[in-house]
């Protein structure tokens, strides 16, 4: 899904910052910007949940072919429709929300979880750490 006005370069940069910060700058992540209908179908098919969600992450490190290409972490699918709603509710722009969701999905591919409050807290600390930090600062560990 390609909507006029959505710049994808900052979304890619947010993923790169996350990978650098997590010491996985050799890794690859693919991103699909979708609508609610598409992400709802994927959510239903793969998670058994019949509703739209903001972001899904499908790790390539699982299954019998996990070692085939270890640098390929997996796929992040973001619902632009849900991102728009969440951005408005949070009082931020759509691009900032897309970057946040891209980082969130990437952290899931790196085995972060948000099923418990402790796990959510850890992810919540990581996301802003990478959101507005220049890549060179992340590399230096600042």
- Individual helix count: 6
Beta content comes to: 5-15%
Topology-level CATH name: Collagenase (Catalytic Domain)
**SSE pattern, N- to C-terminal:** HEHEEHHHH
Based on the coordinates given, report the CATH architecture.
3-Layer(aba) Sandwich
Q: What structural category arises from helix and sheet content?
A: alpha+beta
Can you tell me the CATH class?
Answer: Alpha Beta
Strand order of the largest sheet: 1-3-2
**Low-confidence runs of at least 5 consecutive residues:** 135-142
Total domains, how many?
1
Radius of gyration: 15 Å
List the helices and strands and how they pair.
Blueprint: H1 9-21, E1 28-34, H2 36-47, E2 55-59, E3 72-79, H3 80-90, H4 94-109, H5 117-131, H6 135-139
Parallel strand pairs: 1-3
Antiparallel strand pairs: 2-3
Overview of this protein structure:
With 142 residues, this protein is of the alpha+beta class. The protein has one domain: Collagenase (Catalytic Domain) (3-Layer(aba) Sandwich). The protein is 51% helix and 14% strand. The chain has six helices and three strands. It has a three-stranded mixed sheet. Helix 1 packs parallel to helix 4 (94-109), helix 3 crosses helix 4 (94-109) and helix 4 (94-109) packs across helix 5 (117-131). It is globular. It starts with 8 loop residues before the first helix and ends with a helix. Residues 135-142 have low confidence and may be disordered.
